[in-house]
Amino acid sequence: MESSTSSLAPENLLASQKAGLDVSFGLASRAVEGFEKLIDLNVRTFRTALAEHQEYVTKAFSVRDPKEFFALQNARFQANAESTQAYWQQVADVATGVRGVYLEAAQDQIGKSQRNVQAFVDSIANGAPGSNAVVSAWKQVIDTATQSANSAYEAARAAARQVVEAAQDDAASAANAASTASAATPPAVRAVSTKATSAKK
């Protein structure tokens, strides 16, 4: 009987609580690191956008010809699409990193819980003679619950992976659409500049 109560000893409970707190603070720390990375990314993106806009405005004031102006606008549009795609890719990378830490911690906690429950059942089995049928039933229930938990965890992980992949695909599609729109604009620019040239004659 002592073996079954030894897992419930105050020292073991305190150690378990301390481990749980360490995991919680570790996860909170990683979440803050992810938030810091996003803030840093936003500051760098804003600085870059400001510098690029200043360069664009300076060039726009020095343009003398409508064709050159529209070409400058098209180049700016293409650069914006590429910058947007790069930004969202970096956001997805930060989110994936934080998500990976949480999934790893969840897997560790599930493993620890499974081991603790198994150890508890084993200690009951060793301390209670003649209760093999009850212990076997408990083990079967625990095994079934463990398999269900593992299946749910894998399904959640697969769903999270699909969400990240869908976000990455959407960012790539948006960039491709912007590239296609930018590539389709030069004929219109040529038509406008041809009309402007004809009007001057």
TrEMBL record:
<feature type="domain" description="Phasin">
    <location>
        <begin position="12"/>
        <end position="110"/>
    </location>
</feature>
<feature type="region of interest" description="Disordered">
    <location>
        <begin position="175"/>
        <end position="201"/>
    </location>
</feature>
<dbReference type="InterPro" id="IPR018968">
    <property type="entry name" value="Phasin"/>
</dbReference>
<dbReference type="InterPro" id="IPR010127">
    <property type="entry name" value="Phasin_subfam-1"/>
</dbReference>
<feature type="compositionally biased region" description="Low complexity">
    <location>
        <begin position="175"/>
        <end position="193"/>
    </location>
</feature>
<dbReference type="Pfam" id="PF09361">
    <property type="entry name" value="Phasin_2"/>
</dbReference>
<protein>
    <submittedName>
        <fullName>Phasin</fullName>
    </submittedName>
</protein>
